[in-house]
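Reply to dn_fold:

You asked what the input looked like. This is it:
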Amino acid sequence: MTEDGLITVQSRFGVTETIDRLAEVVKRAGLLVFARIDHRAGARDVGTALRPTELLIFGNPKGGTPLMQDQQLAGIDLPVKALAWEDEHGKVWLSYNDAHWIAERHDLRDASRNAVAAIAVEKVIAAAAGMDQS
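and this is what came back:
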């Protein structure tokens, strides 16, 4: 786990393609896509510039609800979010919250451990970013 709870992996694809791939993998995994936010478009709408940055919000109420039943404030970190962004060197990254960090942050009890394991999204992130999964 990282100190700030964020995990960041490099993507082999552009921001939009990374989020497209993530949305597809998420759907194939039986999860729901709740929203997709294009921060760059939002910046453009107010006359400012921003490197490509898109957020995908996804999950499944079967996994998230037990966490919120345990500690309702866990809902601030749910559903799961992943941010694809381009850095100043043109590299694309995919960042998301570590599920165990969420559990620690909200002091989730033992009864929530299975639900926390269910929101671990490393495999869908790796597939979206084109990481070798061998």
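The longest strand covers residues 32-38.
Hope that clears it up.
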